């Protein structure tokens, strides 16, 4: 297990929207290099970079055309190597995004596989034996290749599924077992891509749709076995490299598959969604001040999973990501401050999505860009200052419009505002680094068994009290302790914690 993860705080960068250094209207790698000090200044010591590989961008780069080449619009492979080097100089790590489940339908492997000629790539994707074979239980693209067969897709139509075989075979004429040499070659091809970038200085990967490799893999055991093999490769060859899975199933991702971290994602009705987003635009969320939220739904899901996996890896909370509406669509500013206090004091390895530190707004109703659809509103350009395109780009036509609101938050107008989300995020990240008890593997104990709201949890010598409600609340505890940090108004006296609406208190020595 790479030791650096225990005190890691990640910043997710969606490269096309971060900083445009050459005025072509789209963010680029040199722009990220220029902003490394900004990211470091937040307290983030690691970055997850969404895909930067060559791609036709039908799905924002999750449709890879060449895994070995940086997309020209972002720069060159040398620029990316320079990003690794500059980051390392500043004691920061960079995780690339690995997309192992599918490629673009313009990837040379696929162009070869869909031709009538039989080659070493004919089984790299999942094709039926003939175009008349199109079982409705599989998502197929039909009748569009020279080859007499239909192919399975993994996500959008432009993303054919790579072939790792089938766990339960229903159509032996075209479904291969996972130990077929051609399926094993797919695994090796992915490992080679990983080695290529690790050798160039990458510190690991965020793995896209990590559970999607083997088909008909109901309990995901065959998929987990592949990742175990990858983890063994990393342990042997790159012991400092880290992998985080887009899986949202810590037992499978961490225990079975060997990922170092697993994302706690927003799946409607799960524990994550119950905290921050549940109901009609968040009206049933724990952090909504209306008090209709339910902490039990979170605690009963998260705590057992945390206890089963805490010695093996980290569950990663995120403020948002590029796939979900920003939390500004659901909660008010004070609530979002408490959300950040929660995310940056819980165990695991936290992820901050670019722009969340300044409370960037979700831009509803934007025309879809690069396969974003409703996600486009969470992917708008970073807001740096009150200059042209809010400091994102000198271009007259940025690839996506910046927030046009007259009071749009920017780094410049938030950084020195003591009442800003920026202040809370940076304060909390600094405290997380300062106190070992707040690190990834520090202890966690929720204090009141009934999981009602308000609530509190202890991490070693620190206790966190949360009153997300819109009314005063009191909690009792055993001692007084020293106030380390607070949001809103809250006091502790003679074991009584008095909390004004939407407040947070961190106490030491209690
Ligand atoms: C998950 C990624 O986060 C998302 O943006 C992408 O569209 C799909 N996987 C398909 O790769």
Mean pLDDT: 98
Indicate the low-confidence ranges by residue numbers: none
Helix content: 10-25%
Strand order of the largest sheet: 11-10-9-8-5-2-1-12
- The 3D shape can be described as globular
- Number of continuous helical runs: 12
| Bound heterogens, unique | 1-deoxynojirimycin
Query: How would a textbook summarize the main sheet?
Result: 8 strands, parallel
Instruction: Please identify the structural class as seen in this structure.
Output: alpha/beta
Total beta strand runs: 20
β-strand amount: 15-25%
What gyration radius follows from the Cα positions, in whole Å? 23 Å
Report how far apart the termini are: 31 Å
Description:
There is one protein chain. This protein is of the alpha/beta class and 510 residues long. The protein contains 12 helices and 20 strands. The strands form 5 sheets. An 8-stranded parallel sheet has the order 11-10-9-8-5-2-1-12, with helices on one face. It has a 5-stranded antiparallel sheet with strand order 13-14-15-20-17, with helices on one face. The two termini are 31 Å apart. 1-deoxynojirimycin binds next to loops.
Task: Summarize the helices and strands and which ones pair or pack.
Blueprint lengths: L9 E4 L15 H6 L1 H7 L3 E4 L3 E2 L11 E5 L6 H13 L3 E6 L9 H6 L26 E2 L9 E2 L28 H20 L3 E4 L13 H17 L4 E4 L4 H7 L4 E3 L7 H6 L18 H15 L4 E3 L16 H11 L7 E3 L57 H4 L6 H14 L10 E2 L8 E5 L2 E6 L5 E4 L5 E6 L2 E4 L2 E4 L3 E6 L2
Parallel strand pairs: 1-2, 1-12, 2-5, 5-8, 8-9, 9-10, 10-11
Antiparallel strand pairs: 3-4, 6-7, 13-14, 14-15, 15-20, 16-19, 17-20, 18-19
The structure holds 1-deoxynojirimycin.
